[in-house]
Amino acid sequence: MAEGHANPESAAAMGQLGLGTAFVLLGQAAFVLCGYLLHFFLSRAVDPVTFGTYGVIMSVLTWTQNALESGVPWSVRKFLPTDPEATDAILRSGLRWQMIAALTLYVLTMILAPWFASRGLRDGSLTFHLRLALTDLLTVALYTFYRGALNGLRLFAAHGMSLAAYALGKLAFSVLWVSLGYSLPGALVGNILGSVVGWLAALWALQRSAAYRSGAGTAAGTRPDRRYSGRAILSFALPTVLLTLAGTFLITVGPIGVKALVADGLQVAHYTAAAFLAQAPMLLLTAFSLTLFPNLSGSIASGHWSLAGTYIYTAMRYLSLVLIPGIALVMGTAPQLITMIYPAEYTASAPLLSLLMISTGLYSTYMVFSSAILAEGRVLLALSIPCALVPVSLLATWLLTGRFGAIGAAFAAVLSTAAAVLASGGYVLRRFSVPMNWKSVARIAIASLGMFALTRLYVPGGALLAPYYLILGALYVALLVALGGITDQEMQQWRDAFQVAKQSLGMEA
């Protein structure tokens, strides 16, 4: 599929997917910005050792929360686009099993917290903080469920809004409690309250949406309820939970490995700082897989395989438009970016940030491929890839961290995520007959290299870095247009899709 030569159906699909991605990206951008502000505040409000501990605890929490975010909500995302008339039955059954899973996981983690703190983290004093952080499992279960419902109904504007509400709530409450003198416990309580805000925002948006009201009530009777019983929900949810936990392990094992294997507490703090800055863009890039999955599920369910290939091609193209220059930008300005967010003593995190940013890009690419496999319904195949890589990642982290310290953990993350991309991408590109437009990739790479070359000449520090990024971004777009990387027809597709979305935005927002 060449640029600018898509048929009308493909052109409309590309434009609509791009617009949906833009809405989710806005919410993800708010989340990233609030995360930067929170880390800017926390790295100055608490000492480096406490800040490093906060990062380790949040890594553990992220890993456990993914069991709730990727299980039942993924079933909801899968079934809503394929059977919108059964909306009420899907949501009713899904919410019941989401809360059962949350309560089960909460009790289990409360029991295991002392053992994990003393054995896994080698610091038994962290038991209280682990238990406090894990209380968020109960509130984040509601937030992620209703956000998943918005995504499954393809209410992408509302999806982005709920994510922004969660981010703002987390930032505001964390800053409040830490400022009142509660330090690490205050930041953890702020995280819990942020989930409450996100949950209420998502629930409000869902209840007022036309897509929900048209589906609610139509599933009354036994057949839809039986079709979407606990067995149907869990048959898709459980493998996706294992899939996400295994995949998340590839990018979250680093801080835990550094904490367990490196005696120097500053290295833990440096890795925490770099890992956050590297993973924050990943939260932006997940917008591509989040919008791809429900669209792809709908097209596969209706037998439109050519349209499915178009969706994957479009997601990969838009991802490369953002990912390649993003990696170049971070690698060219890593020291200045570190000191813009963190105190000067965190400058040593710059090499870690460059490596972890590459790992982030690879993992985001893997997530797009994994979403395509899940949308096809081949959950066991999707699950087998990260599960096979968990022992590889664990061994690489143990060997490289033990020998090289924090930088070894970063190298292990790059190796693990690269293997995930090769395995999943090889299947998806063949299965869906997705043509790779290497000329387009080359244009994007050339424009990105031009931007990187400018960072070798001059990079400002402090507050000037933000406008410098805007200037570089504008130059990248201008160079890409000059090279033919963005065509007039493609821009017209985006404008047409935006005009269509404006008519329904009031019902989705």
Characteristic terms for this protein:
509 residues, disordered C terminus, disordered N terminus, 86% helix, 18 helices
Short description:
The chain has 509 residues and is mostly helical.
Structure commentary:
This protein is mostly helical and about 500 residues long. It has one domain. It has 18 helices and no strands. The protein starts with 7 loop residues before the first helix and ends with a helix. Mean pLDDT is about 80; it is low at about 1-5, about 215-220 and about 505-509.
Write the layout of secondary structure elements.
Blueprint: H1 8-45, H2 48-69, H3 72-82, H4 87-120, H5 127-134, H6 136-152, H7 156-207, H8 210-215, H9 222-227, H10 230-261, H11 265-301, H12 305-341, H13 350-375, H14 379-404, H15 406-431, H16 438-457, H17 465-482, H18 488-508
Helix pairs in contact: 1-7, 1-11, 1-12, 1-18, 2-5, 2-6, 2-10, 2-11, 3-4, 3-6, 3-10, 3-11, 4-5, 4-6, 4-10, 6-7, 10-11, 10-14, 10-15, 11-12, 11-13, 12-13, 12-16, 12-17, 13-15, 14-15, 16-17
